Amino acid sequence: MDDCIFCRIARGEIPATKVYDDEYVVAFRDINPLAPKHVVIIPRRHVDSLNQLDRLNENEQLALLHACRTVAQAEGITESGYRVAINCGDDAGQTVHHLHVHVLGGGKLSVNMA
Ligand code: AMP
Ligand code: ZN
């Protein structure tokens, strides 16, 4: 998608602080962190949201999940704990319409998930 901000980050057209990438996914620091460690993981290939997960192949789908663990290890939060979250659609407050997974940690997180 030409004008999708996360596609542009994946292509390296706009700067982001990347913490991990492989052939399927890119992970970078959230520009407006909600926790001491806040990383966003995206599939390189554009899909709008989790509703379109089946448009990604199984390698891409699994890569998203594995990247959560890899990022947590890289951020040093596997033992202290972290949250993985996906906002899907308006009610969840999804603002960027390219599927992404939030990894949050580095401090005590709110127990309020809603
Ligand atoms: P969501 O509300 O789940 O759609 O999350 C979108 C996230 O993307 C927000 O936490 C934003 O702070 C983050 N974000 C938006 N633009 C950028 C950017 N250029 N670089 C890094 N993070 C971004
Ligand atoms: Zn995109």
What is the domain tally?
Answer: 1
- What's the CATH class, please? Alpha Beta
Radius of gyration: 13 Å
Number of helices: 2
Which architecture does the CATH hierarchy give at level 2? 2-Layer Sandwich
**Global mean pLDDT:** 97
Q: Give the biggest beta sheet.
A: 5 strands, antiparallel
* Tally of strands: 5
Question: What do these coordinates show?
Answer:
- The protein has 114 residues and is an alpha+beta fold.
- The chain has one domain (5-105): HIT family, subunit A.
- 21% of the residues lie in helices and 22% in strands.
- The protein has helices at residues 5-10, 58-75, and strands at 18-21, 25-29, 37-43, 82-85, 101-105.
- A 5-stranded antiparallel beta sheet has the order 1-2-3-5-4, covered by helices on one side.
- The longest helix is centred in the middle third of the chain and has 18 residues, at 58-75.
- The relative contact order is 0.23.
- The site of zinc ion has 6 residues, from helix 1.
